[in-house]
């Protein structure tokens, strides 16, 4: 995942350096909320502009839709709204794969949604953590350009699309199928909590803040504190300072 973060960081940096070129482009090449910064790279400013561009791509899809949705469970209203669209696209022969984080396995609305779209023919898997939000629709990709996700980058440059699709496929290969049959929370915990806590321990050693860790794992900060308390108890650490020392001394991430 570090390669993707580095690559996207370089992409954003290059785009910023080339921003002055956008002013020389004809007005017809970019809308009022768009900024063309290089071949196949376009900034979308504002949620409305982002939504419009994604919907246009989905309306023209012919082959596949790949989505990576971090931050844990999706709002139930969003999931319900997506069901009919997914049904139509699958019926039209579109391949669809979605990555969520492990924490979505505890959310009833998400489980119901996954059960339904899987019956349609979509595929859903989960990971403990992965890259930021990513949508690939045939030969166009969308990635977030700021932390608030109010600015996105639309990409059609084939080399970058190939890189992003390959990154998604590698994450997909490591992910676990989402259980769409009734599953008790305790069973879900047995399957995914060890991986979640392993990631938490690694991120603690790497110096990430609690807020950043919670966001990357897709849980609340309160839930994060519960996981950290369990890790401390297992390792016999009396406080966070000692926990950091024990994790660093072991030079490995914690495995339950």
UniProtKB/TrEMBL annotation:
Recorded superkingdom: Bacteria
Listed SUPFAM superfamilies: C-terminal effector domain of the bipartite response regulators
Pfam families named among the record's database cross-references: GerE
Signal sequence residues: none
Residue ranges constituting the HTH luxR-type domain according to the UniProt record: 190-247
Gene3D superfamilies found in the cross-reference section: Winged helix-like DNA-binding domain superfamily/Winged helix DNA-binding domain
PANTHER family reported in the protein's UniProt record: HTH-TYPE TRANSCRIPTIONAL REGULATOR TRMBL2 (PTHR34293:SF1)
Protein's name in the database: HTH luxR-type domain-containing protein
């Amino acid at each position: 995942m570090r390669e993707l973060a580095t690559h996207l960081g370089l992409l954003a940096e290059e785009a910023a350096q080339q921003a002055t070129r956008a002013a020389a482009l004809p007005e017809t090449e970019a809308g009022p909320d768009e900024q063309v910064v290089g071949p196949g790279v376009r900034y979308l400013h504002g949620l409305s502009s982002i939504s419009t561009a994604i919907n246009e791509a989905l309306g023209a899809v012919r082959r596949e839709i790949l989505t990576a949705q971090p931050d844990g469970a999706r709002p139930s209203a969003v999931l319900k709204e997506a069901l009919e669209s997914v049904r139509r696209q699958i019926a039209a022969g579109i391949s669809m794969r979605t990555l969520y984080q492990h924490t979505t396995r505890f959310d009833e609305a998400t489980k119901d949604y996954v059960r339904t779209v899987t019956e349609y023919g979509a595929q859903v898997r989960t990971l403990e953590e992965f890259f930021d939000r990513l949508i690939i629709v045939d030969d166009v990709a969308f990635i977030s350009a700021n932390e608030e996700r109010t600015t996105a980058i639309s990409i059609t440059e084939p080399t970058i699309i190939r890189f992003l699709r390959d990154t998604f496929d590698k994450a997909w290969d490591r992910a676990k199928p989402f259980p769409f049959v009734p599953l008790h929370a305790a069973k879900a915990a047995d399957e995914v909590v060890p991986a979640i806590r392993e990631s938490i321990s690694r991120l603690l050693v790497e110096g990430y803040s609690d807020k950043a860790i919670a966001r990357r794992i897709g849980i609340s900060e309160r839930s994060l504190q519960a996981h950290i308390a369990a890790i401390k108890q297992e390792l016999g650490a009396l406080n966070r300072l000692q926990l950091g020392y024990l994790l660093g001394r072991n030079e490995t991430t914690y495995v339950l």
